[in-house]
Automatic annotation (TrEMBL):
Residues 36-51 have a biased composition (Basic and acidic residues). Residues 1-65 are annotated as: Disordered. It comes from the Bacteria. The chain crosses the membrane at residues 160-181. This is Uncharacterized protein. Keywords: Membrane, Transmembrane, Transmembrane helix.
Length: 187
């Protein structure tokens, strides 16, 4: 039994574990570690600094409250913006990464960002097209049943939920838009 409920007394020794489990403890001896020379502090690394120079920060960035300062290098490809940025910033300022609230707020921020991006696409000359961009057309052309069943695919378990998650927001937005237009037309 791999995980007995009772605590094993005495715990198996390192030699017993090494004999029983191939490869167990391979990195216990620092001399056997492939990265061991890099762990030595007496070698010349060629670095001219103790801490690398910090990347210039042009705007607010997310920083975990567990860290004293930003890392010297950080990503700038997705700056905080809109309501999703406010939600993400609040998650980082208020909650530790060890709290579920931190991660749940980041998930909410991600969903809000998706909605903001869809809405912003309508202000462009090429708005989002859920028919072609979600891959729904391939469901009818690429063997939808034979490619899913009989192959032990795990994602089959949530297949029933996919149309709701993908099409649901679009249908809801269409219903809301229809009601708004109809209400305005009646005035």
């Amino acid at each position: 039994m791999a995980y007995p409920a009772e605590k094993q007394n005495p715990a198996p020794s390192a030699d017993e574990l090494r004999a029983r489990i191939p490869g167990w403890g391979a990195d216990l001896d620092p001399a056997n570690r492939p990265s061991f020379p890099r762990e030595r502090r007496d070698l010349d690394s060629g670095a001219h600094w103790d801490l690398p120079e910090s990347q210039p920060q042009s705007g607010p960035r997310e920083r975990s409250i567990e860290h004293k300062s930003m890392t010297p290098v950080f990503g700038t490809a997705q700056p905080l913006k809109g309501l999703s940025g406010v939600i993400r910033g609040y998650a980082y300022r208020r909650f530790s990464e060890g709290r579920a609230a931190h991660w749940l707020l980041l998930i909410v921020g991600d969903r809000v960002d998706a909605i903001e991006s869809h809405l912003a696409s309508f202000a462009t000359t090429r708005p989002d097209n859920p028919i072609t961009e979600t891959g729904i057309l391939s469901e009818f052309r690429r063997h939808p049943i034979s490619s899913r069943y009989g192959r032990n695919r795990v994602d089959v378990n949530h297949t029933w939920l996919d149309p709701i998650l993908v099409a649901g927001p679009w249908v809801l937005a269409g219903v809301v838009a229809f009601k708004v237009v109809r209400r305005l037309a009646r005035r």
